[in-house]
Amino acid sequence: MSEKPADKKNHILKAALQLFSNKGISSTSMQEIAEVCGMSKGSLYLHFKSKEELEESIYLYCIHSIRDSVMQVELDTHLSPKEQLHQQFEALLSHVIELREFIKHQFMDGTKPRKNNMSECIREDHFKTLDWFKTKLETIYGPELEPYTMDLVVLVGGMLSSYIKILFIPELPLNIRRMSNHLIFLLDNVVIGMLTKHYEPLIPSDVWSHWFVTGSKKSSLLRHPLLVTKEMKSVLKERSLDDHVLKDALESILILESELVHTHPRRAILLGMLANLEHIPDVQDMKEELREIIKLYLITQPDRSI
């Protein structure tokens, strides 16, 4: 059986990422990538029209891999929100270690994403991440934290940035679990100080609201699909549905989740699973939200209709 185009494209991305990590982008030719993938250079150009397009795809591949691994933790209902955050810190830092050589070569080469749509993708992901993290903190520590949430978002963002830089220091005796424990420990203590001393927030809620609304006009701010499927499963389990209907609906959602974390989700599978949920009124709004998100997931595929 021949390899599916999506699988072949994924194979090329992984091979190119490995070469870029070892040699850097500027020192790696399309011919070398083709040889490692066991194909001709002409066949490689059937999947990626240029080296620049391949670079952009690798950046997106890395961003989506990190994002999806973090959001998959959100589906583990056996973990408390704080335990989820702990594992999400671990997932993020682990991916940075995996991509460490690639990132180092980007600084050495002076390369960076160039296309406007790439910058837009990163900006939209940034807004969605901020909003998700703000909600996560308020879930963990309670609504009384709300006036200080954006101060915490900025603080933790800076801490993570510093921790990531630490990972590039050779032979430093730190491990991911210890770093994640330390982040949670510091976060707990900062929250205690904020809630007991009632100091004036550096970033007031109205400033954040204005900034967020302004950003929303420029960005769809659609949720990560795994957050939507998580809510769908929660709603379904609370409703009095026939056992067979509930089982089929949950199975369809699980297949959706599995497909959405692929580098190149299959359109037919996604549409089929959404169609299986058509007859359940309680989840129609979320189903339509998923449909809009899926449009973005499929935007780089030849057939963009959905």
Structure summary:
The chain has 306 residues and is mainly alpha-helical. It has helices at 5-23, 30-36, 41-47, 51-73, 81-98, 100-109, 116-141, 149-166, 176-197, 205-218, 225-238, 243-260, 267-275, 284-297.
Structure description:
With 306 residues, the chain is mainly α. The chain has three domains: 1-49, Homeodomain-like (Arc Repressor Mutant, subunit A), CATH 1.10.10; 63-218, Tetracycline Repressor, domain 2 (Orthogonal Bundle); 225-297. Helix content is 72%, strand content 0%. It has helices at 5-23, 30-36, 41-47, 51-73, 81-98, 100-109, 116-141, 149-166, 176-197, 205-218, 225-238, 243-260, 267-275, 284-297. Helix 1 (5-23) crosses helix 6, helix 5 (81-98) crosses helix 9 (176-197) and helix 11 runs antiparallel to helix 12. It is flat and about 65 Å long. Mean pLDDT is 82; it is low at 300-306.
Structural class: mainly alpha
Overall number of domains: 3
The CATH topology label of the largest domain is Tetracycline Repressor, domain 2
Order of helices and strands: HHHHHHHHHHHHHH
Number of helices: 14
Give the averaged pLDDT, no decimals.
82
User: What's the total count of β strands?
Assistant: 0
Task: Give the key terms.
306 residues; mainly alpha; Arc Repressor Mutant, subunit A; Tetracycline Repressor, domain 2; 3 domains; 14 helices; 72% helix; flat; disordered C terminus
